[in-house]
Specification:
The protein is about 35% helix and about 25% strand. It has about 90 residues and is of the alpha+beta class. Strands 2-1-3-4 form a four-stranded mixed beta sheet. A hairpin with a 2-residue loop joins strand 3 and strand 4.
Length: about 90
């Protein structure tokens, strides 16, 4: 079974690419061996969402804010490697 695909969809006109890239790096450093592919997907309209295997796990529009790195690691971990301990990110 192939490892999961994670997508960070971001608004390019709002210049959210730097935040998307930073969060992608955080996910890969922590969960890189459990993620098969991580894609940055440009969009517009203030978009900032994170999807795992076709299911949205975070939406800036619903939360009213960007995700914290710790929070995002936990959300993605719960989908790709639920048994994994994230150490300090779980505390």
């Amino acid at each position: 079974m192939p490892a999961p695909r994670v997508e960070i969809r971001y608004c390019q006109r709002c210049r959210f690419v730097l935040r998307a890239g930073w969060l992608a790096q955080e996910l890969l450093m922590t969960l890189g061996d459990a993620i098969g592919e991580l894609a940055l997907v440009p969009g517009d309209g203030g978009l900032f969402e994170v999807w795992v295997e076709g299911q949205r796990v975070f939406a800036k529009a619903e939360a009213g804010r960007f995700p914290e790195a710790k929070e995002l690691k936990q959300l993605v971990r719960d989908r790709v490697a639920p048994q994994r301990d994230l150490g300090h990110s779980d505390r």
